[in-house]
Amino acid sequence: MDAQTFLRELQRLQQGQRDGRQNLSSYEVHECIGCAACMFSTGCTNCYRCTHCTDCTHSTHCTHCNGCTDCHDCAYCADSDYCIQSAYLTACTGCSGCTYCFGCVGLVKKEFCILNVQYPRKEFFEMTAKLTAELNRMKH
Description:
UDP N-Acetylglucosamine Acyltransferase, domain 1, 4-stranded mixed sheet, single chain, elongated
């Protein structure tokens, strides 16, 4: 290999990385762009060390999340943005250390909240089941 061949190949590899076509160190990712060290994910963009995620963007260390953006260290979250170290969030923004929240914004270390109001566990699950069914009907 000569210097010209080396430089051409290096430029090709670098361009592929810039274009986001490569998902470095990832396994079984589909339709993902610019992800690194992700596994079993689909439709994600610029994620790092996420697993079993779908349609997430700019997220890191997440698992089983769907439609999340800029979430970090989260699990089983959906349609949430800017959340960290949280689990089982739906349609939340900016929550930290929270579990089982629905439509909450800016909460820290809270659980079983809907629209930033805390509910007893049983009531939370009854209300979110009803809300989820109604919201799904509205989508169709």
